[in-house]
């Protein structure tokens, strides 16, 4: 399924030059897609690879906490009950999430 996405098919235009994305170990390693190191069969990771994987794991936890905070503040994000039948429906779902992100950031800023 990942190979059929626009990100893969059009990685040159979908991801700006000098940018990349983190993914979990199920995704292939590409110049623009960085995933954790996998332990070689019958071997071990180097110390640097283990440190990198540990750091990446911490970043993933931060991301999961951010998702939890958003879902806690905006209950509609827990289970977005929108049927996506066409491109317009997809855009409505995207706008819904974007609005929640904007409001979330505004709340954080105003609370400071």
Automatic annotation (TrEMBL):
UniProt keyword list: Metal-binding
Residues annotated as domain DDE Tnp4: 4-105
Keyword Membrane attributed: no
Cofactor: a divalent metal cation
Domain of life: Eukaryota
GO MF, any single term: metal ion binding
Transmembrane segment boundaries: none
Pfam families in the cross-refs: DDE_Tnp_4
InterPro entries: HARBI1_dom (IPR027806)
Protein's UniProt name: DDE Tnp4 domain-containing protein
UniProt organism field: Pisolithus microcarpus 441
Highest classification ranks of the organism: Eukaryota, Fungi, Dikarya, Basidiomycota, Agaricomycotina
